[in-house]
Amino acid sequence: MSRAYRKLMRERDGLVPLAVQPKQNTNSLNPDNEVTTDEEGEGDSQHPAGGQQSLFALLGGDDVDSDESDEEGADSDTAKGLKAATTTAAATVNGQDNDEDDAEDDEEEERIGKPAAKRKSKKKKNKKKGKGGGKEVVVENEGKGKGKGKAVEDGMDEIDRTLRELNEKFGDILTPTSTEPTNPNNTDSARRDLLSIDPRWLDADAEMRKMFGSRVVNDEIRRKKYIRSAKRTALAVPREHWPKPDKLGLTMELESTADDGTLYFTFVHSRAYQEIQHVFIQCVNTHDPNTIQNLLQMYPYHIDTLLQLSEIAKHGGDIAMAAELVERALYAFERAFHSMFNAATGLARLPYQRFENRAFHLALFRHIGYLARRGCWRTSFEFAKFLLALDIDADPLGTLYSIDAYALNAKEEEWYLRFVDAYQESLGLLDYPNHAYSLALAKWAVEAKNHKSSSSSLHAESTTLLHTAIRTFPTLIPLLLDKCGSSVAGVTPDTPFFVDETDSLALRLQVELYVERAHSMWKVPEVLAWLREGVKSVLAEGGERGSGVGEGEVPRNLSRHIFISGMSCFHQPVSSSPTAIPLTQYSPPV
Question: What is the pTM of this model?
C-alpha cells in the first residue's frame, strides 16, 4: 500500500509545471541541495540545486527520506493525514481553493453509499488553506446522520410527514370543516343515505330470533341445513342440498358512472346462457311443468327456470319450496355481482329497461313478499329499499305502492317521515293515496312514542294530516272501516262524500291495494279510534272533497305490481286497454 502511494506522489510531483512553481528561496528549503532517492529503486526522482522542490518539501512537514519499513509501519491516520496535506499543497501551487474537488469527493461518496459515509464519519473536520495564505477553513461533517435526522424530524414518521405535506398543499384533509357544507349537493347526499341498506338486517333468521327466541328458531335453521362454511353472502345463504354452483355465463358489467358517484350496472348473458334461455322458452310453451323440472336438473342455477318453478310451487301450496327457489336465484345473482356493486351505499343502479336486469328485480320483489308472509318486516323493509334504489326514477315494479307499509310495520316511522320530506317534490308522493294516509299514521306513531300519551292536543299535527288525506281520497274510508270491522255513523258506500264515479281506474286500484295491505295497521284500537274521530270531524266540518289522482291509463308499474303480488282482492281489471298483453310468471308485463 505505501509503495504504491509513494509512486503516485512521485508521478504527481513530476506533473507540476515549472511555470506555476512559487518563487521561493530554494536554499532555505534545502540548503544542502540534497538528492532524494527511493531506496527501492523504483523510479528515482532527482532535484537539481536550483530546481523545484518536491511537494513534501513544500509542505515543510514530514521527511520524505523515511525508509520503506517506517512507512509500512505507519497507521491509517498518518496515511490519511498525508493525503490531506498533499491536497492542500496542490491547491497552494495552483493558486486556487480546492472546494470543487471536495464537492466532487462528497458526490462520489454519496454514490458509493454506506462505506463511504462510514469513512467520512471518522473525519471530525477537514482543514483547508485558501490561496490568500494560511487561513484555515474548518468544514464540519454536515452529512453525518442526515437521513436519520430527517426520519425523526418533529417526532414524526414517514406517513405523518407525508400527510403533513399534503395538508399544507391541499388544506386539511383529515378533519373536514363543519361550519360550511363541503358538498353543494347536500340534498342528494341525504337521499342516498335514505336508500342505503344495512346488511345486518338482510338476515331473516336473525329477525326471527329476536321475535321468537333462539330455541324455537334454531330448530328451523337446522332443518334448512345452511352451509355456514361457504363464502358469506348477503342476499341468500346456500344450503347443503343445493347443487354446486357452476358458471352458466351470467356476469355483471359496469356501464357508466355519473358525476354524483352513481354507478350503473347491467347483467350480461353469454352465448351459452342465451342458448339455455331459448330451451327454457320452449319448455314453457309446452305447458308441462315436468319439462321445466328436467331443465332445472340440467342447469340448477338458471334464473328464469328457478322463478317459473317457484310460481308453480306457490300455486301448488308449497310456499316453503317457492321461497327457497327464489333464494337460490338470488344466490346465483349475487355470485355474479360486479366487484364494485355495493347495495349498502345506495349508489348502485340496475335499470329495468335492460332485459337481462328484469329477472333480478322480479326475484327481489317476490323475496320481499315471502319475507312479509313470515312477519319479517324489518328484513322485507331493507330489501324494499334495495329494490327501490336499483331504479328509483322509473320504479318499474311499483315499490312506492308498498314501501310505506313495510316501513311502518318495521317501526321505521322516523325514516319514512324523512323519506317523504326528501322525495315528495321529485316523486309526488302525496298524490298516492297510500302515502297520504301512511304519512298521517307515521306522524301519529312518532308523536305517541315521544309523548307516551294519547291526548288529542299532542296529535294535532297528525290529525291535520289525516283530515287532508280523508278529503283528498275519501273513497278509501268506507273500504278501510269495513276491512277493520268498524263503522262510523253517516259513512256508507252510498254516502255522496265517499263515492265518486269519476275516480279513475288507477285510483280505485291503488285504494284497494292499500286497504288490502295496510288494514292491519289501522286495526290497533288507539289508531282505529283516532281514525273514527277524524272521519267524524271531516263530516262535521263539511266542505268539498279534494282532488285525487286524475283520469288516465293505469301506470305500467302499477299493473306489474298487482300482477306480481298475486292478490285476489281486486274486482277491477288491471288494464282498461283492449289490447291483450301476454303474461308470464318468469317475466312481468313490459
Answer: 0.67
